[in-house]
């Protein structure tokens, strides 16, 4: 058993508490096939106008050229570009899927057990994912294990910064009001873990064989949450 002391834990989603395949094979196609119809249906609503305007700026196209904006959104989706307007749009589409029970978040059982243990031990849990905060809340509110939202104290996405930049973790630390050695970050992605470590945060890699993650030599690397304890 490996024990860590921390007051807060940052939790990645894909490849960490849930499979990478779920996002690739279920969530992305679900949003992509419904994207055009959803955008046209809500194009005049303020939330959608804000998304489209941001997408137009990022793609350097006319804010009134809806077809050009949609082409950019599809290109980003096809290439898994982690740009905020796409993530926000996907989050809205996924909300419909989760709330209609078309989608359920298939979290790994060991992750569900660990999150409950850490919460019971008094560790404040936060999500930090490239998916939008809205999408994060949908997933954890509609998992195969039920509603897990009550376990979490907060959520972070790319609006606070790129997950591969140390400054993003420094910004989160400022918001949490904690020194870096009292925060632990769980992720499968070595570049993200490198950035967190540069900011002084404790790091643990989830190198799950089923996700094909290669174990890191620079961070504590484990195949699951089993035997990993976090205590205040």
Summarize the structure in words.
It is a single chain. The chain is α/β, with parallel strands linked by helices and 232 residues long. It has 2 domains: 2-18 and 105-231, Rossmann fold (3-Layer(aba) Sandwich); 24-99, Orthogonal Bundle (Transcription Termination Factor Rho, Rna-binding Domain, Chain A, Domain 1), CATH 1.10.720. It is built from 8 helices and 8 strands. It has a 6-stranded parallel beta sheet with strand order 4-3-2-5-6-7, sandwiched between helices. A two-stranded parallel sheet has the order 1-8. Helix 8 (190-198) links the parallel strand 5 and strand 6 (202-206). The longest helix is centred in the N-terminal third of the chain and has 23 residues, at 20-42. The radius of gyration is 18 Å and the shape is globular. 36% of the residues are buried.
